[in-house]
Design brief:
The structure is a single chain. With 226 residues, this protein is of the alpha/beta class. It has a five-stranded parallel sheet with strand order 2-1-3-6-7, sandwiched between helices. The protein is elongated. It starts with a strand and ends with a strand.
Length: 226
């Protein structure tokens, strides 16, 4: 799961990033309106943590543009402004939550999990595909009630596939979702083949009745075997 932190105060931004990375999220950041605008135009995120007051513009403008472009990224506004008017405006523009500074990191983490669950999992604590169940909050995977051990990237890959069943997923989309915009620096997507190969082997050995099928010249597709 990929998160964008839009915050101009360096110490707070880095503290939030470290906290989210401990929760095993892929985290990117932006410190100005323009930098955030470019990232939001080029990439999709599971959640955006958005400050209102930014160098070069307002976070509310970014939020408004997101909704105009019909992007479904969840948004949590963080702001030192605690007026009812600001909260109402942010929520009216489509924000999923509003958190006033200063806040506890534990509360922010809880709210991130909550908005992602509401948006991607219809409020459920788990996702299923065939005899496999994945619990994103706990980073746990079970096949027929037996836990499957995966490394971080294998889990992230599996979560992305299970959240997008029967959908053709390009290698570029997969790389961007799991590795973030740093993937632009990669010479090829060969490393994805290796990660997916290992994941497919683990699923097969564990008796999963779903599989990740390679689609020649495009990418992959998760399908459940009847």
């Amino acid at each position: 799961m990929k998160i964008l932190v839009v915050e101009d105060e360096r110490s707070l931004r880095e503290t939030i990033i470290r906290s989210l990375e401990k929760e095993r999220y892929t985290v990117e950041s932006a410190s100005t309106f323009r930098e955030a605008e470019m990232k939001l135009n080029d990439y999709d995120y599971d959640c955006i943590i958005l400050d209102i007051m930014l160098p070069g513009g307002s976070g509310l403008t970014l939020l408004e543009n997101l909704k105009k472009n019909r992007k479904r990224d969840s948004v949590i506004i963080i702001s030192a402004k605690d007026s009812i008017e600001d909260k109402v405006l942010g929520l009216d523009l489509g924000a999923d939550d509003y958190l006033t500074k200063p806040f506890h990191l534990a509360e922010l983490n809880a709210r991130v999990k909550s908005v992602i669950r509401r948006k991607q999992q219809d409020g459920e604590l788990s996702l299923s595909a065939g005899n496999l169940t994945i619990y994103p909050d706990r980073h746990a995977v079970y096949i027929q009630q037996v836990e499957l051990t995966l490394n971080r990237k294998e889990f992230d890959l599996l979560y992305y596939f299970v959240a997008n069943p029967d959908r053709l997923i390009s290698k570029a989309s997969l790389a961007e979702s799991v590795w973030g915009d740093y993937i632009d620096q990669a010479d090829s997507f060969d490393f994805i083949y290796s990660q997916v190969k290992n994941l497919r082997k683990k699923l097969k050995n564990a008796g999963a009745n779903m599989e990740i099928k390679a689609v020649y010249g495009f990418g992959y597709k998760l399908s459940v075997n009847e």
